[in-house]
Amino acid sequence: MSQAVDSHAEELPSSDDSASIRSLADAGGERMPASRRFSWWLYVVLIYLAARVVTTVMLLALASVQGKNPWTGAHPSYWDYASIWDGTWYKIIAYWGYPSQLPITTSGHIAQNAWAFLPGYPFLVRGLSTLTTAPWEYVSVFVSLAFGLGAALVFYKLMRVWLPAGTAMFAVLLFCIAPVSPMFQVAYAESMYIFLLVLALYLLVKRRYAFLFPIIFVMSFTRPSGLAFALCLAMHFAYRWWQRRRDPEGHPFSTRQQVLVGSVTIFSGLMGIGWNLIAWGSTGFFSAYTETELAWRATYIGYAKLLPFSSWIQGGNWWLGAPAGAIVVVLLVVTFGLFMATKAVRRLPIDLRFWVIAYAIYLLAVFFPQSSTFRLLMPLFPLLGVIALPKSRIYRVAVVILFLAAQWGWLLICWGVDGADWTPP
Q1: Mean pLDDT across 378-386
Q2: What's the confidence (pLDDT) of residue 153?
Q3: Section 191-207 average pLDDT
Q4: Residues annotated as region Disordered (predicted)?
Q5: Residues 95, 153: contact at Cβ < 8 Å?
Q6: Residue 37: its pLDDT value, please?
Q7: Residue 369 lies in a domain
Q8: 268, 280, 153, 180: which is closest to 221 by C-alpha?
Q9: How many C-beta atoms lie closer than 10 Å to residue 309's C-beta?
Q10: Which of 4, 83, 235, 300 can bridge 354 by disulfide, Cβ–Cβ 3.0-4.6 Å?
């Protein structure tokens, strides 16, 4: 990888919590007149709330024409509609926990069950629901909303590490209206996970390694992430070791930092397999978690063992036929590699590029491509900073329109239920 601008390079603007920012229409980063200044966090809050209002209108429009389905009756309320799909699994986990005996299909394979979903989000919602006596449907949505707002606030701080204020704020707008941003207001764990991930990346960029331990612990029991983050940390360690005598800020990779980074890398790797071990201990079946995950792709390709880096080839051939599917997958990988080598992407802080690469490798290694993949691309959010770079207002208006149209399209295809639906979100 070519030499990149570090997150601490001198030429990049420093973050200033008290600095005022321009309105979204002005993305050049200049200051507003003193009489029109507001705190950065107020802009983020207003953008986030406005984006959620737009998404709420979309969801209500779909709910008004939604027919009876496995989760709700016809024309469900917003709260019921926001709790379908995986939200029902999380509710089952919150109130009934995980099965000690794995369900078996008539063919002798492990069937879909709760072990595919991690406990961080449902247990938190259950605890708050018990404290407030409010129904699951209300609490789950409000928890997602709160974590989404927290993620947007930290995302702005992360973008300000390398972007001027106006551009960083436009990146926040894209973050809040992204095609799969409805995840910030439904009963899914993504909102909580994205908040923890943005915070972890911010701590990594700022080299506050010790604070990563508790964040990684909770994050790893919210969404599968420990192994991908461990790979990112390993890249960070290798890069800092290589640069240890020529750090751009004159801060060498001290022995203390080496121990911390090495320790947190190992810790993240262990957390990455922690849920597998818990599922094994609870069910007595060594591959309980992986076999459960494989049950979801059995609808497409039948039951098969998990072979790393084979899922995308299998999926490509299932969707497009062989060998066209495999060829398309190879082209996607090559295109991604070329994209990561572009000048615009190389402006990203090196640690954010490490994360994007690590997570892309993780997806390629273990996930099967289908409609849920769009949601699984959410952790690639650092690339929104690259999309926000051009300052043309025509470009920015076009991108906003495109994102909103894609959000509506994603809801139509993935969230609305139409009979035997093959497009789960």
Answers
A1: 98
A2: 98
A3: 98
A4: 1-21
A5: no
A6: 60
A7: yes
A8: 268
A9: 10
A10: 235
Q: Is 104 helix (H, G, I), strand (E, B) or coil?
A: strand
Assigned domain for 29 exists: no
Give the whole-angstrom CA distance, residue 94 versus residue 87.
10
What phi, psi does 283 have (nearest 5°)? -110, -15
pLDDT score of 27 more than 60: no
Q: Which has the closest alpha carbon to 80: 7, 187, 183? A: 187
Burial class (CB in 10 A: 0-12, 13-18, 19+), 55: buried
Number of domains in the chain: 1
- Residue 280, domain member (yes or no): yes
Give residue 91's domain range. Answer: 34-415
Average pLDDT over residues 253-265: 95
Give the angle 338-199-265 at the CA atoms, nearest 5°: 70
SS3 category, 19 = coil
Nearest 5°: phi and psi at 110?
-70, 130
Torsion of CA 384, 388, 389, 395, to 10 degrees: 140
Which range is least confidently modeled, 140-154, 250-264, 278-292?
250-264
Instruction: Output the 3-class SS for 168-188.
Output: HHHHHHHHHHCCCHHHHHCCC
Tell me, yes or no, whether 361 lies in a domain.
yes
Helix axes 288-301, 311-320, angle to 10 degrees: 20
Residue 118 CA to residue 121 CA, distance in Å, equals 8
Q: What distance in Å separates the CA atoms of residue 6 and residue 249, rounded to the nearest whole number?
A: 10
Degrees to nearest 5, angle at CA 62 with 56 and 64: 100
